[in-house]
């Protein structure tokens, strides 16, 4: 063959029959019981892999937060003092706050309001704040239940 300048051209038209010429995505390799795929990049890893060798995925980063109660939800539930404690697994403390301490605090605030032309009712604001701060600071007792699978 000659190119446009009249010189010989070394281009050879070859067809490689072993190559698959298609736009279809490649079929994934079957994953066996002793391997798993990386959730980020799809690299085949051993079943007990703690991190991916191809990307920055780690097992610790992808664990769900189910066993922990949400602090924000506990604080929100503490608008009714004691419910946040019950939500975080402190049932006895929550019941004491809900049925004993809060009614006592309300009774003292009412007595203080009578004695101070209504200003004593403002004592409840720091009480509610203290209950919300306490529920934020205590440890969770909520534990993840083991998955029993489907029951037939």
Structural class: mainly alpha
What would you call the shape?
Answer: elongated
Unreliably modeled segments: none
The sequence of SSEs as H and E is EEHHHH
* Oligomerization state: single chain
Overall helicity: 25-40%
| Rounded radius of gyration (Å) | 33 Å
Provide the spatial order of strands within the biggest beta sheet: 1-2
Mean pLDDT: 79
Major sheet: size, sense and barrel closure? 2 strands, antiparallel
Total helix count?
4
The tally of strands reads 2
What portion of the residues fall into strands of 2 or more residues?
A: under 5%
Straight-line distance between termini? 74 Å
Features:
single chain; 152 residues; mainly alpha; 2 strands
Describe this structure in words.
The chain is built from four helices and two strands, in the order E-E-H-H-H-H. It is mostly helical and about 150 residues long. The protein has a two-stranded antiparallel ribbon. A hairpin with a 6-residue loop joins strand 1 and strand 2. The radius of gyration is 33 Å and the shape is elongated.
């Amino acid at each position: 063959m000659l190119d446009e300048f009249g010189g010989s051209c070394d281009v050879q038209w070859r067809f490689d029959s072993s190559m698959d010429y298609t736009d279809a995505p490649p079929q994934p390799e079957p994953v066996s019981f002793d391997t798993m795929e990386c959730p980020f990049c799809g690299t085949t890893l051993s079943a007990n892999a703690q991190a991916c060798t191809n990307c920055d995925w780690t097992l610790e980063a992808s664990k769900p937060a189910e066993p922990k109660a949400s602090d924000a939800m506990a604080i929100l539930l503490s608008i009714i003092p004691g419910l946040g404690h019950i939500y975080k697994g402190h049932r006895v403390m929550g019941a004491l706050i809900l049925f004993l301490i809060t009614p006592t605090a309300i009774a003292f605030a009412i007595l203080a309001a009578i004695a101070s032309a209504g200003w004593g009712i403002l004592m409840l604001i720091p009480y509610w704040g203290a209950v919300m701060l306490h529920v934020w600071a205590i440890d969770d007792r909520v534990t993840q239940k083991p998955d029993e699978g489907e029951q037939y």
